[in-house]
Amino acid sequence: MKVPHPIPYQGSKRNLAKYILPFFPQDVDILFEPFAGSAAISIAAAVHRKAARFHINDVNQPLVGLWNEIINHPKKISEQYRGLWLKQQGNGRKYYDFVRDEFNKTKRPEHLLYLLARCVKASVRYNANGEFNQSPDNRRLGRNPQQMTDDILSVSKLLLGKTVTTSTDYKEVLSLAEPTDLVYMDPPYQGVCATGDPRYFSGIDFNEFIPELKRLNKRNVPYILSYDGRTGKKSYGQSSPEELGMYRLEIDAGRSTQSTLLGRDDVTYESVYLSKNLVEQLDIASIHIINKKKAIRQPALFEL
Ligand SMILES: C[S@@+](CC[C@H](N)C(=O)[O-])C[C@H]1O[C@@H](n2cnc3c(N)ncnc32)[C@H](O)[C@@H]1O
User: Fold this and answer.
1) Domain 17-59+168-299 is classified in which CATH homologous superfamily?
2) CA 26 to chain centre
3) pLDDT in tens, 245-303
4) Using CA atoms, how far apart are residues 58 and 170, in angstroms rounded to an integer?
5) Domain ranges of the chain
6) Could you identify the atom of ligand 1 that is nearest to the CA of residue 34?
7) What is the CATH class of 68-149?
8) Core-most of 65, 77, 198, 292, by most CB within 10 Å?
9) 33 CB within 6 A, ligand 1
């Protein structure tokens, strides 16, 4: 089944979902995504019935407002997007600037959806005053309204009645998780998201994050963490301290767009950490890395 993805979002894990889902334990009650963004893992988990319920959280309030509309009022937000998309015809840049000004005044969800669909790299950028200041990508008009409507309706069908949405700091959300739940975390990388308004882009503080993981360990809450990554020889993010006892997997995510443009062969490796209590629930022998390009399975490289 096609996995819908209504919110265009830089850093979305939609292409990695198929490598992450096999590590879900059986019978997850609530899947928590405290750094949800476009919630690619929650959507994929819902499609594959990997969790009974979902908790989508992001510190970015307008984004969570958009999530509420998509889940609870899918027809309305689809029509609003269609209206904005049609009005831009022949008047691209001026219209984009108009919608951006309106969004900065009102923070309306349909404006955010239009801006994300039209802006450079679907990347949320706010200035120091908290105003969205990303430029439009003038080569495209943004996702076609019919495709957008289809994805919104599908996601609403998957999540309606089973999903809690919040906009708060991740730490508050972690405190709600139980051993029968699963937490998937994709925090902003230092240096990648850490620009603009700190309300939305705070690269999280590593010194606060590690004790939070320790608390999850202590409460026996299983978790999966996407953290650092490396492209070719360049690596970013910090590696996690061994004392947490996590297992690290490297997923060969194929050539990065940047490398392809530069004609280089660099492959991006995405690191995924599995909590110790999660690995204990899984059959270790079945942990594999799936090589995307060659579609083969190879033994995982994991460390304690
Ligand atoms: C790398 S993105 C997540 C992308 C997501 N996995 C997806 O598939 O789209 C990180 C997200 O964390 C959010 N964020 C940053 N600081 C946060 C905090 N302290 N608490 C909760 N969310 C936060 C950002 O707004 C951003 O949407």
Assistant:
1) Vaccinia Virus protein VP39 (3.40.50.150)
2) 22
3) 888 787 776 655 555 555 655 666 778 889 999 988 886 555 544 433 333 233 333 33
4) 7
5) 17-59+168-299, 68-149
6) 21
7) mainly alpha
8) 77
9) no
Strand 288-291, strand 234-236: pairing: unpaired
Place of tokens 């691209």: 92
Pairing, β 267-274 against β 223-231: antiparallel
For 51-75, how does the pLDDT look when each residue is reduced to its tens digit (9 = 90+)? Answer: 999 999 999 999 999 999 999 999 9
- Mutation test of ligand 1: which of 10, 14, 35, 126 has the most ligand atoms closer than 8 Å to its C-beta? 35
Per residue in 281-292, pLDDT (tens digit) is: 886 555 544 433
Going by C-alpha positions, the residue among 196, 188, 67 that lies closest to residue 131 is: 196
Q: What pLDDT band is residue 244 in, cutting at 50, 70 and 90?
A: confident
| Cα gap 112→244, rounded to integer Å | 38
